[in-house]
């Protein structure tokens, strides 16, 4: 049975700075409560209280919704963020990203990937062959949107994450986002660490590796974070990739395996 869904999106700013964003795909009954939670999150964000909040609710055509299974999770525990970045480079190499390209991407994230040296609102798009940045607006980048877990899959995921001590909203939201990203046509891998100053973990994801959480990827208190989508997109296919990430609704209705720590 196909149900009517709504894309719910939030974007919050303080001054000219982006401080928080969120994306859900929900039935009409669920939208109101989720919207309230998003507003609360924007007003209580560790990067500061939002001064301007954009909330968008948009109906989604049920026939357009794709379904998928969530990526498996592995947790790589490291003793400091520098070791975490080494693990990220190794994982990206296993996914097909040359060392020079991933090191350059990490440097960009750590210096603030927007032209003013702050975090971007979305992700960098990097050509995996040349290391070139492909996004047309380097403040905004590309934002993955219109994706969510079904209520049942969310419950199962939270229970599975609880068993390995990782049941928090950062991990749940990031796993949903990463699943959408790696399924994009032309996507090779994703790298992420948060812009939340209190949250030092991040991940590398790819179809083959799944979601590889890395316990530390930045120093405590650091607000510069972001995402890199490494892509192989000749010609017109860059448009297809962006349409998938930003426009195509994806509902994840099955979870994958949640493994205990690997390092
Ligand atoms: P967060 O994991 O929410 O702390 O976000 C970390 C960074 O990832 C942000 O600073 C943005 O640069 C980027 N980002 C957040 N949400 C998205 C999204 N939906 N699509 C692409 N990039 C995002």
Helix share, percent: 25-40%
| Main sheet overview | 7 strands, mixed
Describe the global form.
globular
Average pLDDT confidence is 94
Rg measurement, Å: 17 Å
Query: Got a strand count?
Result: 13
Can you count the helices?
6
Strand content: 25-35%
Topology as a string of helices (H) and strands (E): EEHEEEHHEEHHEEEEHEE
Textual characterization of the structure:
There is one protein chain. With 263 residues, the protein is of the alpha/beta class. Strands 6-11-8-9-10-5-13 form a seven-stranded mixed beta sheet, with helices on both faces. Strands 2-1-3 form a three-stranded antiparallel beta sheet, covered by helices on one side. It has a three-stranded parallel beta sheet with strand order 4-12-7. The protein contains six helices and 13 strands. It has helices spanning 28-43, 81-95, 99-110, 151-163, 169-182, 237-246, and strands spanning 5-14, 17-26, 52-60, 66-69, 73-76, 123-127, 147-149, 187-193, 202-206, 210-214, 226-231, 250-254, 258-261. Bound molecules: adenosine monophosphate. Adenosine monophosphate binds next to strand 2, helix 5 and strand 11.
Keywords:
single chain; 263 residues; alpha/beta; 7-stranded mixed β-sheet; 3-stranded antiparallel β-sheet; 6 helices; binds adenosine monophosphate
Short description:
The protein has 263 residues and is α/β, with parallel strands linked by helices. The chain has six helices and 13 strands. 30% of the residues lie in helices and 29% in strands.
């Amino acid at each position: 049975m196909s149900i009517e869904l709504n894309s719910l999106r939030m974007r919050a700013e303080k001054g000219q700075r982006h401080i928080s964003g969120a994306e859900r795909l929900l039935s009409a009954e669920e939208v109101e409560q989720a919207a309230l939670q998003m507003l609360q999150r924007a007003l209580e964000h560790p990067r500061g209280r939002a001064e301007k909040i954009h909330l968008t609710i948009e109906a989604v055509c049920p026939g357009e919704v794709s379904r998928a299974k969530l990526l498996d999770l592995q947790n790589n525990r490291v003793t400091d963020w520098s070791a975490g970045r080494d693990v990220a480079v190794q994982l990206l190499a296993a996914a097909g990203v040359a060392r020079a390209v991933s090191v350059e991407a990490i440097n960009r994230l750590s210096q603030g990937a927007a032209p003013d040296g702050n975090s971007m609102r979305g992700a960098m798009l990097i050509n995996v062959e040349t290391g070139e940045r492909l996004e047309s607006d380097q403040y905004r980048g590309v934002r993955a949107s219109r994706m969510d877990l079904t209520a049942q899959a969310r419950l199962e995921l939270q229970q599975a994450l609880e068993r390995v001590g990782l049941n928090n909203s950062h991990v749940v939201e990031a796993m949903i986002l990463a699943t959408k990203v790696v399924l994009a046509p032309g996507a090779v891998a994703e790298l992420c660490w948060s812009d939340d100053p209190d949250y030092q973990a991040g991940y590398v994801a790819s179809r083959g590796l799944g979601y590889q959480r890395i316990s530390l990827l930045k120093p405590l208190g650091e607000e510069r974070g972001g995402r890199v989508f490494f892509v192989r997109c000749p010609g017109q296919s860059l448009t297809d990739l962006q349409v998938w990430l930003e426009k195509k609704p994806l509902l994840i209705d099955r979870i994958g395996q949640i493994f205990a720590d690997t390092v």
